Amino acid sequence: MDVKSTRGEELKEPMGQPVEEAAKSGHGEQGAESGEKFFQTAEKGPDPAAAQGEDSTVQTRVTEEKELSGEQNDGETAEQEHTSVDHEAENRDKIRRTKARILGYLMKKQYHDLREETSDMHPADLAAVLEDLDENNRLVIFRLLRKDAATEAFTYMSDDARLELVEGFSDAEIVNTLEEISLDDAADMLEDMPASVVKRVLAKSSKKTRESLNKLLHYPEYSAGSIMTPEFVRFRSDLDVAGALREIRKQGPDAETVYTGYVVEHNILIGVVSAKELLLNDLTVPIKELMDDNPVTVKVTDDQEYVARQLQKYDFTAMPVVDDEGMLVGIVTIDDAVDVLTDESTEDMQKMAAILPEDQSASYFGTTVWQHAKSRIPWLLILMLSATFTGMVTTHYESAFAAIPLLVSFMPMLMDTPGNCGNQACTLMVRGLALGEVTVRDIGRVVWKELRVSLIVGIVLGITNGVRIYLMYGVLTAHPNPDTLRYALVVSLALMGAIVMAKMVGAILPLLAKLCHLDPAIMATPFITTIVDACSLILYFWIAEIVFASEIGTAVIH
């Protein structure tokens, strides 16, 4: 719907209502009353009795934002002269300044200027501004936006912000929003909402939309079907280029993408043709001559990460999804694939850092302190208790400490260095498994490769550390230790052996986890560190007992 923007014409709010109806909509059950006050204030000017409560919050927030904006403007000249600019900070400053202007327009009832301010903004930037507003102002401003701007920004907002908006929407607003956004975005939104909200949304949507959403929501979670969209451009096989272009114009407004069209016969996918091919060929050429008749497809039940990797592998912007009978049921677009890979990478990083996976849509500051603590405590408890094994090893070799106290000073280095080596190997294996570069069947090749790598690393670090110990305790000191060479030998041999062992453990554990159908990322930093620490100490004291056998034996006798 085109929106009239001149001051003398009626302004329509995003759900098809005039501004006065949008302002009257309010939020929740108090919407009618608060909205009526808002509208009266907008039309008649500020009424102290009616508008004081409505405008106080906005006034305070606008004042704060203007003060902040003023401070930022003072420093803009200096920032522009800087050669290295922090783009993230710059973007946050831009959002704050935009937010201050929008709140200023709202307070002054300058709704036309508010719409002009937001009409040219990118939907992602507008969504960031809306999320930074408090709940009530967000709802009021959302209703005053142009329909297309509001709809596009809605799809970029976080789940929490969208839920707050939906809870304040009228039934008509819910229906219009669902009809405007793509079906896969609508399904993703509903998956993260409470059942009561989902029930209300589906009850108020059109029959066609409801049927499509129900179908998407019933596909297995994390499958291709759960992230695909059924809105795409399809062609009959008997069309020529001219007919295909007409179909693009006809289906394009509701399609997720128009860059690729899919040729079907009885809904069976038989080929794929790009818009580029259609534009560069004569109008009378049959599309059968232009299409790729051996299209790459994925099944509706395939894992979403596999689908994203296929898009990445073939450099596609969209991947056709078929059912078991080969019928085309939807497409997965590149933007959804990027979201999947981002979520999967975030989840792997959290597991490798011994953190339980959190809601991927929630930002760091958007997650409560309790949620952060709850996701970290379980693994930390497990790792803390598992450190008991390291303590048991230390207690077992207490006699070696008593006989040769200097051995204790090398323990941190002998635990940290092999642990770092093991984490390196483990990280490479987790990445290789995720990208399909390494499989469980490659375990023999992996062991042989890491064995050679670990020997080189172990020899270099062992010799370097031996030289360091000899210089520190035998040469560059006023009181040289007569056993310096033996200390250097023990530590160097223990370090070499611990590095080889750590790299073997770091490379093999992720592969064993994959073989047992577990997430390889679980075997990363937390478990590697615990296992390597204990094994390194055992190896260290075993070598020390051999080299310093007489000293330790005498201490035990006494």
Overall, the morphology is elongated
Query: Which topology of the largest domain does CATH recognise?
Result: Tetracycline Repressor, domain 2
The CATH architecture assignment of the largest domain turns out to be: Orthogonal Bundle
- CATH first level of the largest domain: Mainly Alpha
Uncertain runs: 1-81
* Average pLDDT reading: 78
Rg, alpha carbons: 32 Å
Oligomer: single chain
The DSSP helix count reads: 27
Strand order of the largest sheet: 1-2-3
Quick one: biggest sheet?
3 strands, mixed
What distance separates the N and C termini? 95 Å
CATH superfamily of the largest domain: SLC41 divalent cation transporters, integral membrane domain
Strand content: 5-15%
Number of DSSP E strands: 6
